[in-house]
Amino acid sequence: MQNDTAFIRELAGLAPIIPVLVVEDVAHAVPLAEALVRGGLPVLEVTLRTDAALDVIAAMATVEGARVGAGTLVTAQDVKASMEAGSTFGVTPGSPAALIDTCLEAGLPLLPGAATATEAMTLQARGFEVLKFFPAEAAGGIKTLKGLGGPLAGISFCPTGGVSAQNAADYLALPNVVCAGGSWIAPLDLVNAENWTEIEARARAAAALPRG
């Protein structure tokens, strides 16, 4: 089975930034999603790093305009549970063959993680054209993406990991970057403080970032 590349490209094209979300309290899910959608960031990655994550995904999936996916997929159980919760796409930090097999067999559209040319080429051979470049800054950041752009012209990237308000525009200016993922839009302290106004403002600023 092939990955749904068209679906992933559609998602990547909806906004320049995908918020990477860590949410500890399901009561925050709906107002957080609403603030992000109002701010122009409809594609939401909920990381499976808290006990509430699956319930958060289910709650956010009810918000009009939100496109909710699960991040930090590392096991077959993660894939199954996130789909049952309502995820419409998945994101992995890396791409072991067994995990990719599970996602393909389950029919989950996927943004798989890659940090090297070999990993990117392996995923491309399996039908993936849009990849998560992770951990972006630690893996060489903009210089590495520029280097990959020539030989791997058919691959687009969503850099995540160290992308911030200060460097996001530089990443988005690269021709092989379709969007970027970042946690600065809705950091845990603002979420726990229920500061939806500030989160919406950050989302609006991120949604206005130009792409190359």
Automatic annotation (TrEMBL):
UniProt entry tagged with the keyword Lyase: yes
Biological pathway: Carbohydrate acid metabolism; 2-dehydro-3-deoxy-D-gluconate degradation; D-glyceraldehyde 3-phosphate and pyruvate from 2-dehydro-3-deoxy-D-gluconate: step 2/2
Cited CDD domains: KDPG_aldolase
Keywords, in A-Z order: Carbohydrate metabolism, Lyase, Schiff base
Record EC number: 4.1.2.14
Gene Ontology MF terms: 2-dehydro-3-deoxy-phosphogluconate aldolase activity
Catalytic reactions on record: 2-dehydro-3-deoxy-6-phospho-D-gluconate = D-glyceraldehyde 3-phosphate + pyruvate
Enzyme class at the top of the EC tree: lyase
Subunit structure: Homotrimer.
Family: Belongs to the KHG/KDPG aldolase family.
NCBIfam families named in the record: eda
Protein name: 2-dehydro-3-deoxy-phosphogluconate aldolase
